[in-house]
Amino acid sequence: MEWRMRAIRGATTVNENTVEAMKEAVTELLDEMEQRNQLHPTDMISVTFSITRDLNAIFPAAIARQRPYWDTVAMLDVQQMYVQGSLERCIRFLIHAYLPVSAPVHHIYLRHAANLRPDWGFAEPLQSSQSAIESKV
């Protein structure tokens, strides 16, 4: 099987600028990304998180680093450029990872961020009780 470096995009929103709200949203977003793409963190090269200027309770990378196998992934947090009228309380990511060439890439846009890319949205999040990590370990 041939593998190639691919880019995966995603975003979500939070209702409030709290550690708890951000942890819940980032966890949901990353769970969905891993499951939809059948991606294990050991196949990731890097992750860049961007957050809007109204979020500063915690770094998304600090949340991700607590996940199994994510502690060796290179991660960076940056502030999203402000544009008047743009989506507020938004967390985005850009992941570079090795995936099979034949595998489709599923970009993940949840909550109000689904409006950013309706062409990439899913009707509902996966309700799998077993994550992609568990199935690959």
What this model shows, in words?
Helix content is 21%, strand content 28%. It is α/β, with parallel strands linked by helices and 137 residues long. The protein has one domain (3-136): 60s Ribosomal Protein L30, Chain: A (2-Layer Sandwich), CATH 3.30.1330.40. Strand 2, helix 2 and strand 3 form a beta-alpha-beta unit. Residues 127-137 have low confidence and may be disordered.
List keywords for this structure.
60s Ribosomal Protein L30, Chain: A; 137 residues; 28% strand; 5-stranded mixed beta sheet; disordered C terminus; 3 helices; alpha/beta; single chain
Specify Rg, calculated over alpha carbons.
14 Å
Could you spell the SSE succession in H and E letters? EHEHEEEH
Whole-Å distance between the termini? 19 Å
CATH topology heading = 60s Ribosomal Protein L30, Chain: A
